[in-house]
Amino acid sequence: MRKLLILALVGLAAQLVDGALGMAYGLTSSTLLLFAGVSPAAASASVHLAEIGTTLAAGVSHWRFGNVDWRVVARIALPGAVGAFAGATFLSSISTAAAAPWMAAILFTLGAYLLVRFSRPLRANRAAGRLRGRFLAPLGLVAGFVDATGGGGWGPVATPALLVSGRMAPRKVIGSVDTAEFVVAGAASAGFLLGLGAEGFLLSTVAALLIGGLIAAPIAAWLVRIVPAQLLGAAIGGVIVLTNARTLLRAGELGGPVPAVVYAVLGAGWLVALVLAARALRRARRARAVAAAARAAGAPTAAKPAIASTPEAAAPEARRLAAAVEG
Predict the structure, then answer these.
(1) In the chain, which end has fewer C-beta atoms inside a 10 angstrom radius, N or C?
(2) DSSP 61-114
(3) How far is 152 from 195, CA to CA, in rounded Å?
(4) 22's torsion region: left (phi>0), alpha (psi -120 to 50) or beta?
(5) How many Cα neighbours within 13 Å face the side chain of 84?
(6) Positions in the chain short of pLDDT 70
(7) With contact defined as beta carbons under 8 Å apart, do 115 and 160 qualify?
């Protein structure tokens, strides 16, 4: 019972992180299950089965809050399902000994990516126009395959690519990626069912993760507007890197002082990333404050007739001041 309660809390925390970042439910849950000694295929299968329920709840919640672009969902979900099914059957066909380092390496890489990404300012390219299918389809295919073989990765691959495009609001990106993941999780579960059979799913683990995720889903859809993604992304990235480093060190049979040195280096890198993330967050907030003040100064008043009378006219000055603060 204690183990199930802990897993339910893990599911709750993982869904809160996923709802705020648009990623990391599978990474967080799979990392913990691997750490507890669950085989890679069983861990990924159980997480994806639980995700069918959590992503459905998350999708409905994001839809209610207006965070979903259904055109993007349609064009990324189906290729993602194909990639996830292929990844699930691939992971099911290799031995546990061979799969553990493979899965840990994927999770470690994605965790390191989170550290690097969120330790820098989160900027988007202000491109115009709609995202095309020739971009969304390959993105979904790759993200779905990585997600199934790594026990997570749909969000870390899909969310940053859509954010960098600059053609969607961040909350729309997160909501659309979370909603499309329902289809991806279903396809991955079908692939694991075909490759492992029903006994490949740890049903008690699935139920615990599902309960925690269902509780957190509507809260996460609301928190996406207020939680500082900068710090959260750096924090969860460090956890994923450190826990999967343990599996990689064991696979490499590295003993003596090597593990201690590796953990010390990774811990120091995590601390640096958190400091840089905090600094980037403070700079971004100061820049927004300066830009808001500049726009307010551009409002028409009787005392200041020479100041621009529209926010659009004040925009160049706002951008100049914001750039000065960030620099």
Answers:
(1) N
(2) HHHHTT---HHHHHHHHHHHHHHHHHHHHHHHHS-HHHHHHHHHHHHHHHHHHH
(3) 18
(4) left
(5) 35
(6) 1-3, 19-24, 95-97, 122-129, 164-166, 217, 220-227, 229, 299-327
(7) no
